[in-house]
Every structure is written in structure tokens, then in C-alpha cells.
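Thread: quick sanity check before group meeting

JM: Hey all, I'm pulling together slides for Thursday and realized we never actually wrote out the predicted structure for the chain we discussed last week. Dropping the sequence here so it's in one place. If anyone has concerns about the input, flag it before I start.
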Amino acid sequence: MSDPPDTPEAAGSPPARPSGLQPLLRRLHFYAGVFVAPLLVVAAITGGLYAIAPSLEQVVYRDQLHTSSSGDARPVAEQVGAAVRLRPDLTLSAVRPAASPGDTTRVLFDDPTLGESERQAVFIDPVTLESTGQLVSYGSSAALPLRAWLSGLHRNLHLGEPGRIYSELAASWLWVVALGGLALWISQARRRRSAEHFATFDAQATGRNRTRNRHGVIGVWLVVGLVFLSATGLTWSKYAGDNVAELRTALKWTTPTVVTAVGDHGDHHADHGAEPQPDASSMIGELDRVLDAARAAGVDEAVEVTVPSGAGTAFTVTETRQPWQFSPDSVAVDGATGHIVDESRFGDWPLAAQLTNWGIALHMGILFGWINQLVLLLLSIALLALIIRGYQMWWQRRPRRSGRLTVGRPPVRGALLRLPAPSATAVIVIAVAIGWFLPLLGLSLAVFVLVDAVISRWPRRRAD
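JM (edit): ok, ran it. Output follows.
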């Protein structure tokens, strides 16, 4: 028994063989869907959990992050001093003062026993100066253990650098699958000369046509979100991420940083060997002056104050990623005088750097708060539904009378060879260029082509 016709009008006569790039897109979409989709399933599940991590963090660590104390907050210097007395064995690194009443102040310490990008956080009640707990803080977003664990799960499955291959493969192929599927869906709508069910479910469809309609419509609604997740995810990847970083540097799209050198101290210390260490107690005493100067300069939202690691270096005050924070400014402040040494205004950043900052915050579920997180969670669930429909459609293509447990046949091969020479050459050149910039995409595509060539040489089994 043959497959049911794809469209009602195809029932009376054999459908015309698609021409142009459509057969090539169909075969690429098929192989990517079958073999890359399992990685996308893992990325969708772990990404959905990571998306809601900021809200989970507020619930799980409520006792550390919040306090019920009422009254006037003590000076930040006293709050930091209380934390230093608790951990005199560690080096003070930074402080995140309480952003609003009811929040605790987070004092961050460098700890040689912790991993890369990890710091020890001591939480201080700004009113009573009592500690509400200590936790490990990760990265520039100061993620606490639960969010950091979910981040690692999403990024590398807690397998270290080898595990990052999975997430980079998923991110590299996601945009290919999404845009290729959209192109195929548009092509089908044009062949039918009807856009009636291009973006809406067809209640009259049955069998594989119904499955395909669900698959296509879900893909239409998700395509922008999927391409966004792919592009922003690649910025964190290993191999493609390095290429993105080099491109941004070459085009001067990097995020500006503030200069922290005060006067001529930097040259003086370079000439005379080791840089003298600043006095910890004097630095702590300068914190309130530094914060007052930063607020006067307009850096007055939730901030992180980086403590100088050497003499002749200014404090850095940077607005942290928070919901509805669209323009994180930063200033360097001379702690001794309170003078602004340098500043970095978001409005002066290159457009690419601004978009990157927004994209990262959006991908992390921070930019728009819980709304952002809910949308990402729904996007992850919808991606799972899209993949399930794709596999269902593949299963429904299987031969019905073979007597064997089998699945649907792949689309016809040889699509590239049937293209005109200029078109085929253009496809190859573009594929090589994309493969160079996205190495894991290029390598896996080469493997697909090789495997497909080997399979094509196997003798065909006799049809039942």
C-alpha cells in the first residue's frame, strides 16, 4: 500500500516532482529533523527549566535574598565590614547593595577553592548587619547554586567542555531546521495556491495531512523565536562562539569597558615590580563615597561595585541585569576623592553590542521578568510538540504491508545533482562558508552527506 496522497487534488494523478531547491531543502530538513531533533529535545527541556530559574531562585533562596527587618539601612561600609568579619580568610571582590527595602546585601569574595567564575557570597541584612546565609555565586549574573546547576545542565549536561558539543550542535542546526521548514511550508502553500491554513490548524485534515498541518503551523508560529534562540545560543558556544567573538572584535562591536587606572599609578607600578596591595579597611570605608558618586552620575539602579585589586585602581560601579533594565551603564570612581575616572554609557555602545546585551538578557529570561520566562517556557514546550509531530509524520510515511518494523523513507536523493551548475555551485559555496563559521554544523553536514552517499550504494530491497 502506498502513502496516502498529500493533497486531495493529488489523488487523481501523480504529483509533479518538485523542482529547484525544494528537494534539497526537503532532504536536508528530513535528515536534520531525524538526527538532530534528539539534541533539540534535550536543549528544549533543559532550556525550559533554565528559563524559569530566576523565579525559582527567588523562591528557593528567599531566606538568603530577603529579610523582614524594618528600619533604616546601615551604611554599606558597615554591611561589608560585617561580611568581612565572617570571612576574614577570603579576599573581598565586590558588593551588590540591597536594591530595595526587604532585600539583603550580597558581599562577594574570591575563594581559591571554588571553580572558574565562582565566588563566595555572604548575605547581610542591611538593617541588623546579621548574615542570612552564604552561597556560591556564579558568573556576572551572580547566579546562585540552583540556577548555576540548571545553566550547566543546559550548556553542557555537566560533562565539561566535551558536553558543550551537544548544545552547539543543537544551536547550529536549529535555525537551519526552522528556516528550511518555513521555506518548505511556503512552497507547499504556493503549490496549493491557498494560504487558508498556512498559520491556522486545518480541522478537516486527517491522517498524515493532519500531522503535517500541525507540524507546519506550529513551526510558522515558532520560527522567529527559534532563530533567536539559535543566534543567541551560538554566542555562548565554543567553536562558533569564538568566531562570533573574533568577528565582533574585528568590526568593533564589542562591549566597551571603563578605564580604572587612577593617575600615573599604573606606569609607576609597572616599573617597580609587584603592585602594592590596597588597605582593605580603607577601601571598605570608601564604598559609600563611591556609591554616592555613582548615583550622582546616574548609575543609580541595582548595581555591583567591584573592589580594586591593587593600589591606583578605581572602583567600578555597574548596573546589573534586572527585569526591565535596558541600559546598563557603568562608571569608574576614585575611592579616595569620589571623582569619576571614566564612564561607559549604554547609549554610546555600538548597536551590535546593545543588541547582544538585550539578546543575552532575553535568552536568560531576565529582560522582561516573569513574562520573559513564561514565553521561553512555552516556546520550549511548543518546540517539543513540533518535534513530536515531525517524528509522527515520519512514522506515518512507513510502508504499511512490509511485514517489518520500519519507518518512512527519506525524500528522494540526488537533489543537488539535478540543480543547474551555477545553482549547485552557489549552494556548495554557501554551505562551505557557513560550515567554516559554524564548524560543528559544517562537520555534521559533511557526515550526513557521506552517510547518505554510502547508503545510496546499498542494493535496494525488493518491495513487498
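AS: nice. Confidence is low (pLDDT under 50) at residues 1-16, 265-273. The radius of gyration is 28 Å.
JM: adding both to the slides.
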